[in-house]
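> call design_seq(struct)
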């Protein structure tokens, strides 16, 4: 298996892996060059060959489409999702339709036969910048496993080429500002019949400790580990002496093995579960090999390994990009000036910029990119303004207010409840905002011009499934499509809450929906909304995206052009909103249904959630509207409701009978209504406590009754990401998932993983002593 193509064979477009070095990266991509470097150094790497990027470029030139592809290498500035999708489809189809030159096909066939007749191979994309220290392109281009036969190998190569032109790849190049001519090499490598596999990090990615090797391992193919499909065993090995320092046995109920007929999933008998995947001898051997690779590269490495019987193979390696200098924007050093304003730190981080006080969204044109926005309070119609601000300060609000939620999702530092910020902060003043300490300080840590000119770098969150696999799903809340690709590349299981009311500000362009409908612009609105939702759906596909229907309150709708039609309410927070409004204004609800139907034609991972459900009759009436719409016949679409009104505790069994599939507990509204405290009140903020026993009792009741009715359960809110006790409480209650802001997803995953492990340990101890299961 460790052989290469014969050296005497002169091939123009094919390179054997064993002949590659890191200096060949421009021709064969980072993945292939790394494998070649390891093979040359004598490390155990499966045999294979590479179809060079020049082969791709020549094939496109021969087909007469290289020039047009190069000209369209980046999406058009400001392109809507529908335009991007149409362009990507056209570009991919042109590549798939391009004939592979006879010479190249012959070379691929000969190189494949050199590996053995009908050999199972993995066919993987290897882009020039892939697996580099600064850009990973992780998951952007396609790869295929268990491929057999010349025709299928050639077809897989062609599909790797076409993946250069997916919506995801186009968006990624735009985000990373990669303006070179797109090209890709393709690695064809013998599949390892692994019985144990996983990932080894030569520095602990959780703590940054470079004196330890962390290993995650499972039985069968490694995709169950890197894809987060099971909880792998986790081992820690010290580099000094290579002794095993810590062992955590995971939970694996099935294994995946490869074969000529594709991957095969096999259930693991109960008697065979709960045993270590790797023993101490295996771990010492693996750790020594991993450290040798690290020494070869002079930097910590993230390796994928596979044991096949007694043979140990390295199937991939890359630098670890999450240990300091990992692409996360460095915090701005604190300024030395005096504190000008103080409030609640509602979104972490620091930023320096020029103060711009806006009393109304109508003043938005006064805000320049990189300014610090100071306002009495923000509402959803401020979203386009918030995007341009480097930081946000508000007089009112608590940590669950609009400015705080959107700031966290946009990655901006936010200080809320500063009371007199709009009067004490003067336009044009240079300040530094600290979203952790809740302060606004005179002066800047960097010059204002530098802060404005230097764009905020994209946050590197990591690859899916690379941190803490958990049985409890960890979803994210999203409000806008801009960060969809970046967040989707993280260790998250989907979007648990897509807030439609934040997105409609772009689609409505500040105009009330009633006016949009009256002007006959329904199709325009639906197309624009569907474009944004589709971008999110595409980025996360096939992971679920739960679209919450429009839930603007009357005072928020009133701020729109034409909003004078809105009723005036003394307390809009508990007034004319959500499910009840859809029943009274079915045309408003149909807008959401039209959007979802449009998106689901291409992305069936989008599902509907109905907010603020108070009684059985209104939900029943709302569902009748859904059933009367063409979307209603699509029974593969899940129907969720928000569980945020305490009456849900009573009505849940009846809701289930109406055909609801899941409930998402909205902790902010539920806490507000259980405790009778305005969630936006800065004065009453000490009363707002999601851990109050009364709130926890309501949450427990919802989870118990929903579970008994066969419904999926989730919890949406920042409380679970800030309180380890709540995270453990929810896991013990058996919640299906939690949904948090993207910046806290990794931390939440660790909280949930810790809770799950503690529960397993408690169960093991109880079973040993013949005690009842403490988790029940």
């Amino acid at each position: 298996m460790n052989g290469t193509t014969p050296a005497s064979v002169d091939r123009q477009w094919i390179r054997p892996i064993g002949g590659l070095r890191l200096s060949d990266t421009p021709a064969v991509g980072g993945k292939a060059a790394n494998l070649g470097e390891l093979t040359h150094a004598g490390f155990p790497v499966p045999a294979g060959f590479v179809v060079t990027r020049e082969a791709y470029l020549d094939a496109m030139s021969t087909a007469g489409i290289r020039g047009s592809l190069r000209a369209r290498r980046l999406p058009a500035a400001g392109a809507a999702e529908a335009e991007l999708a149409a362009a990507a489809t056209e570009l991919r189809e042109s590549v798939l339709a391009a004939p592979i030159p006879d010479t190249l096909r012959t070379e691929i066939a000969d190189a494949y036969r050199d590996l053995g007749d009908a050999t199972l191979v993995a066919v993987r994309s290897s882009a020039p910048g892939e697996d580099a220290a600064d850009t990973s392109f992780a998951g952007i281009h396609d790869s295929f496993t268990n491929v057999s036969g010349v025709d299928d190998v050639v077809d897989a190569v062609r599909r790797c080429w076409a993946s250069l032109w997916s919506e995801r790849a186009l968006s990624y190049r735009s985000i990373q500002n990669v303006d070179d001519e797109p090209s890709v090499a393709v690695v064809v490598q013998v599949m390892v019949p692994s019985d144990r596999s996983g990932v080894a990090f030569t520095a602990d990615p959780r703590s940054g400790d470079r004196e330890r090797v962390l290993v995650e391992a499972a039985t069968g193919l490694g995709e169950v580990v890197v894809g987060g499909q099971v909880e792998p065993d986790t081992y820690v090995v010290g580099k000094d002496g290579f002794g095993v320092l810590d062992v955590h046995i995971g939970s694996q109920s099935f294994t995946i093995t490869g074969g000529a007929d594709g991957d095969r999933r096999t259930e693991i008998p109960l008697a065979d579960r709960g045993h270590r995947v790797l023993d101490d001898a295996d771990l010492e051997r693996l750790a020594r090999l991993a450290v040798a690779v690290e020494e070869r590269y002079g930097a910590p490495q993230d390796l994928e390994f596979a044991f096949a019987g007694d043979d140990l193979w390295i199937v991939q390696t890359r630098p670890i990009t999450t240990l300091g200098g990992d692409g996360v924007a460095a915090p701005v050093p604190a300024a030395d000036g005096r504190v000008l304003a103080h409030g609640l730190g509602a979104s972490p981080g620091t930023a320096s910029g020029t103060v711009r006080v806006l009393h109304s969204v109508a003043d938005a044109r006064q805000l320049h990119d990189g300014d610090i926005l100071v306002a009495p309070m923000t509402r959803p119609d401020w979203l386009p303004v918030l995007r341009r601000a480097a930081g946000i300060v508000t007089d009112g609000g608590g940590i669950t207010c609009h400015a705080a939620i959107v700031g966290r999702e946009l990655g901006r530092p936010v200080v809320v409840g500063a009371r007199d910020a709009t009067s004490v902060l003067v336009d044009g003043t240079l300040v530094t905002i600290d979203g952790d300490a809740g302060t606004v300080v005179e002066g800047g840590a960097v010059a204002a011009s530098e802060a404005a000119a230097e764009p905020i770098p994209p946050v590197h969150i990591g690859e899916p499934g690379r941190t803490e696999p958990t049985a409890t799903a960890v979803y994210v809340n999203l409000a806008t499509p801009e960060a969809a690709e970046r967040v989707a590349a993280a260790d998250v299981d989907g979007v648990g809450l897509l807030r439609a009311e934040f997105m409609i500000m772009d689609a409505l362009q500040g105009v009330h929906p009633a006016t949009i409908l009256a002007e006959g612009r329904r199709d325009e609105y639906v197309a624009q909304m569907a474009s944004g939702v589709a971008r999110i759906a595409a980025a996360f596909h096939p992971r679920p995206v739960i679209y919450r229907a429009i839930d603007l309150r009357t005072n928020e709708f009133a701020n729109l052009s034409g909003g004078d039609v809105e009723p005036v309410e003394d307390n809009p927070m508990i007034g004319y909103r959500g499910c009840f409004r859809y029943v009274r204004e079915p045309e408003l609800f149909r807008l959401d249904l039209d959007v979802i139907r449009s998106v689901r034609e291409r992305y069936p991972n989008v599902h509907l959630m109905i907010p603020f459900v108070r009684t059985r009759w209104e939900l029943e009436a709302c569902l009748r509207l859904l059933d009367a719409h063409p979307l209603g016949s699509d029974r593969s679409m899940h129907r969720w409701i928000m569980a945020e009104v305490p009456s849900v505790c009573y009505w849940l069994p009846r809701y289930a009978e109406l055909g609801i599939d899941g409930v998402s507990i909205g902790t902010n509204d539920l806490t507000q209504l259980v405790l009778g405290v305005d969630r936006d009140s800065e004065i009453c903020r000490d009363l707002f406590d999601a851990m109050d026993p009364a709130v926890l009792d309501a949450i427990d009741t919802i989870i118990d009754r929903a579970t008994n009715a066969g419904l999926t359960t989730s919890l949406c809110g920042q409380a679970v990401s800030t309180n380890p006790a709540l995270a453990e409480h929810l896991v013990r209650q058996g919640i299906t998932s939690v949904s948090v802001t993207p910046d806290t997803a990794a931390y939440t995953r660790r909280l949930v993983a810790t809770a799950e492990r503690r529960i397993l340990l408690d169960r093991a101890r109880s079973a040993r002593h013949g005690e009842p299961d403490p988790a029940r």
